[in-house]
Design brief:
The chain has about 400 residues and is an alpha+beta fold. The protein contains 15 helices and twelve strands. Strands 2-3-8-5-7-6 form a six-stranded mixed barrel. A two-stranded antiparallel sheet has the order 11-12.
């Protein structure tokens, strides 16, 4: 402790021998730390946005189907509504919400146009708790209950069919007996959001579609949400145990492309940390090498007077620590301040369409994550100190008399 109290003020004074160089190095460290925090926050926001958008687009955190349905999604591959152990598992506390659906490929026609669609029979109240289809996002009366007449279509599909609210359309689909059935329905709602789904997803009440396709009480799938993202795997496993004769899959198994994009985003964050650290390390090593070259005679004199090499190493490492810590603190403040100005979200503007192609939304909401800030600072400080040991140890291995003789010549 006495030795530390001796070298600590000495190291601080040595740090400011060249004020300009010290400030420039601190600025480089600060920019690197701020960049790590800001970029990490944006990548986390992108990943969270992609996850939320993917799960809200009818996928949920997972789905339950009859065996073979995901390979051949036809009405013949239906299943009974949940009962017994499966119903009990869906009623547990780790299940946020679940909803039954009927799915069928179909054809929709207006007086002017026709288009292939995916027809979904839903329970409106349950569906609003699982997917994007909230009553506030639907223009018109919408579907009142699980047996209400009418359909809800996307704005893009409405423009293609050249129809509006109140118009009647004809839907043709193959029923459970393999016969082509037709039904006339009224457009009771136009939904917003999920531009991709707006082109083909059509929603009707669960009871109406079951009757139309002759399914009785059978359904095509169950979509569910876990309480926490971290509980998805556990919940999926428990549901699979409760329904061994059904096919239970997680969202990433149902949407592998979206899962790959999210994983790539997370890996990009790690790569960015490595690149930022490499830049800081090169700058720090260059600064330390310059300091050591300029102070070789001083180090040789101190060792000749009896200063142990270990104490000399501790002094220079302490100088590096002061330098990096000050820069990291300033960088953390800079990064945090920048993120606080974006609390209302960042509109990607013209980049929004490209973001949607990769699963994210047009607006990102980066947040201040204390753990991420501490991690960025800790990574830069610890690894930079370790990096600074090499030139310091190399300098202290020189024989004092040799150093002093070269300095005089």
């Amino acid at each position: 402790m006495n030795l530390f109290s001796l070298i600590a003020p000495l190291a601080w004074r040595n740090l400011w021998r060249h004020r300009g160089r010290t400030l420039l190095t601190m600025l480089a460290v600060a920019i690197a730390v701020a960049a790590m925090i800001i970029m990490g926050s944006f990548l986390s926001a992108w990943s969270a946005s992609a996850f939320d958008r993917t799960t809200a687009a009818l996928t949920g955190h997972g789905q339950i189907h009859a065996v073979g349905f995901t390979d051949d999604p036809t009405v013949e591959r239906s299943m009974a509504p949940p009962s017994g152990p499966l119903a009990a598992a869906l009623a547990r506390d780790n299940v946020e919400a679940w909803t039954p659906r009927v799915f069928a490929p179909a054809l929709i026609r207006s007086e002017r146009e026709s288009a292939p669609i995916s027809l979904y029979g839903i329970d409106p109240a349950r569906e609003a708790a699982v997917s994007f289809l909230h009553p506030g996002d639907v223009e018109g009366t919408g579907l009142g209950d699980s047996r209400a007449p009418g359909i809800v279509i996307g704005r893009f599909l409405a423009e293609r069919l050249q129809v509006s609210l109140g118009r009647r359309l004809v839907i043709a689909a193959q029923d459970v007996d393999g016969e082509i059935e037709e039904i006339g329905v009224e457009v009771v709602g136009l939904y917003r959001g999920q531009p991709d789904l707006q082109k083909f997803a059509v929603f009707a009440s669960l009871g109406q579609v079951q009757e139309f396709l002759g399914l009785g009480e059978n359904i095509s799938e169950i979509a569910f949400l876990a309480r926490q993202r971290s509980e998805i795997n556990t919940l999926t496993h428990s549901l699979a145990l409760a329904a061994p004769d059904l096919d239970v899959k997680r969202w990433d198994q149902l949407q592998p492309f979206a899962a790959a994009v999210i994983e790539m985003t997370d890996n990009t964050n790690a790569i960015w940390v490595v690149v930022s650290f490499a830049l800081v390390s090169f700058g720090l090593i260059n600064t330390i090498l310059m300091v050591l070259y300029e102070r070789m005679r001083e180090f040789g004199l101190l060792q000749a007077l009896g200063m142990k090499p270990g104490l000399l190493v501790a002094q220079v490492v302490l100088e590096s620590t002061y330098l990096v810590v000050c820069g990291a603190v300033f960088g953390a403040a800079l990064g945090t301040g920048t993120l606080l100005t974006l609390r209302g979200g960042l509109d990607l503007g013209s980049l929004g369409r490209g973001a949607q192609m990769f699963g994210a939304s047009e607006r990102l909401y980066p947040t201040v994550d204390v753990s991420q800030i501490l991690l960025a600072c800790a990574v830069v400080v610890l690894l930079s100190i370790v990096t600074s040991l090499y030139p310091v140890l190399r300098a202290t291995r020189r024989v004092p008399i040799t150093v002093l003789t070269r300095a005089q010549t």
